[in-house]
Specification:
Blueprint (H helix, E strand, L loop, with lengths): L1 E6 L2 H11 L6 E6 L2 H4 L3 E2 L7 H10 L4 E4 L2 H5 L2 H7 L3 E3 L7 H4 L1 H10 L7 E4 L2 H11 L3 E5 L8 E4 L2 H12 L7 E4 L6 E9 L3 E3 L4 E2 L2 E3 L3 E4 L4 E4 L8 H19 L5 E11 L2 E8 L6 H8 L4 H9 L15 E8 L24 E5 L2 E3 L5 E3 L3 E9 L2 H14 L13 H4 L8
Helix pairs in contact: 1-11, 3-5, 8-9
């Protein structure tokens, strides 16, 4: 089997790496890829959001499966074009991708499927926005309705800041809308569900860290780190979420004539009233994917191909490594407000064994062949260990070997979990 992976981040690097160890996968092509992926697979500079260009590339290389990493190509209809060409594609079509492309639509689907989630108001005017803020009160949760690369949500006790974010979302166009929600208490968890339009196969739970600084301080980011598994999660949580959330949503999408094929990412708050959905994404999340795939022992290519072809019913129960995995994101100076780019990265060759490795995200090839920073989140350092303590120790030892001027990272990824300090509300 030959696989084409669409995207250029650490998530795609993790996907390529996992696909290449599947005995059924002969070769992987990445578009556009990055310098890290280029070491292990063929990278082709193609616009990932151009459905025709992606389809032409898939035809040119005779691939058997296309795996779409980021959300933007899905919302642009890349999966539609690939399937229309008769090529298997892991990723939802444009209509189904609206589950992430519009938070208001996601709320509508959740209501129809009776999925437990936060109460919400969709505001289209300043008057509706202020009314919703006053109805829910602090802490205020205000979400941009459209795609925002994980940074469209503001959670704050400051009503002025909440109002300003909501107005900025409404200012994006005549059809702009903003979602205001009730605040959900309790720790958060991420569950990736592999879907083939009818069936759901869950992966293992992970937790990510959105805020830029230790102690969950500072602005939201695309994610500063993650770990898996969640030993503190209630027993039976995954089965409960599949039964009450993922399967009903897949059933509802099929009923609407837009079957969902790909990853349904369920962002959860484990509240005193039970699990509640915070959001859906329609692709693997970054950086949770890096930790989850590090632990997956089942060959990835066969799993994704079965989903793309509607054959999840034939898949054997997933196998998992017993180790824990921790992912630490190394961010550029100035991230997230104004990340510095073009800075040389050294020490990458010092990090690389079966337990700890570097995945590239915001990197590029410099003029002299060196690797330089080219984005906000530059690298993910992923490690496996017998437990979270050992995985943390190895991950941070790897981070310490990487040299990037002005770079920063959180030092508390998985720390509270390793200490046994996370509790779900009763």
């Amino acid at each position: 089997m030959k696989v084409l992976v669409i995207g250029s981040g650490a998530r795609e690097h993790a996907l390529v790496r996992a696909l290449l160890v599947d005995p059924a996968v002969d070769a992987v092509v990445a578009a556009p890829g990055n310098p890290g992926i280029d070491v292990i697979a063929l990278c082709v500079p193609v616009d990932a959001r151009d459905p025709q260009a992606v389809t032409d590339l898939a035809r040119e290389h005779g691939v058997d499966l296309v795996v779409v990493g980021p959300e933007a190509p899905l919302v642009a209809g890349v999966a539609d074009a690939v399937r229309a060409a008769g090529i298997a594609c892991f990723g939802p079509d444009r209509a189904a991708a609206t589950l992430e492309g519009s938070k208001a639509f996601a709320k509508e689907v959740m209501a129809a499927a009776e999925v437990p989630t936060a109460l919400a108001h969709v505001a289209r005017t300043e008057a509706e926005l202020t009314e919703a803020l006053d109805a829910f009160g602090a802490p205020y949760v205000v979400k941009d309705d459209g795609l925002a690369a994980g940074k469209g949500v503001v959670v704050t006790d400051d009503r002025g800041a909440a109002l300003a974010h909501g107005l900025a979302c409404l200012a994006k166009g005549d059809d702009a809308q903003v979602v205001v929600e009730e605040f959900l208490d309790g720790p958060e968890a991420s569950l990736f569900c592999i879907c083939d339009g009818q069936r759901v196969v869950p992966l293992d739970l992970a937790q990510d860290f959105k805020r830029v600084f230790d102690g969950d301080e500072g602005p939201n980011t695309g994610g500063m780190g993650a770990y898996s598994p969640l030993d503190w999660a209630p027993e039976g949580l995954v089965d409960d979420v599949v039964a009450r959330v993922a399967q009903p949503v897949v059933d509802e999408m099929r009923r609407r004539g837009t079957p969902f094929v790909g990853v349904l990412y369920v962002g959860l708050a484990l509240t005193s009233r039970g699990p509640r959905v915070i959001e859906f994404n329609v692709r693997f999340g970054d950086p949770e994917t890096q930790s989850v795939l590090a632990r997956l022992a089942t060959p990835l290519g066969g799993l994704l191909h079965a989903a793309a072809q509607g054959r999840l019913g034939e898949v054997e129960p997933l196998r998992w490594r017993e180790q824990a995995s921790v992912t630490v994101v190394v961010a550029a100076a100035g991230y997230p407000a104004s990340p510095s780019t073009g800075d040389p990265i050294a020490g990458l060759e010092l990090v690389g064994d079966s337990d700890t490795y570097v995945l590239h995200a915001g990197t590029a090839a410099g003029p002299d062949g060196t690797v330089v920073s080219a984005g906000g989140r530059v690298l993910s350092v992923v490690s496996l260990g017998a437990d979270l303590d050992e995985a943390r120790e190895r991950a941070y030892a790897g981070v310490a070997k990487v040299e990037l001027e002005g770079s920063h990272h959180r030092t508390d990824i998985a720390l509270r979990a390793a200490r046994g300090e996370i509790r779900t509300p009763r």
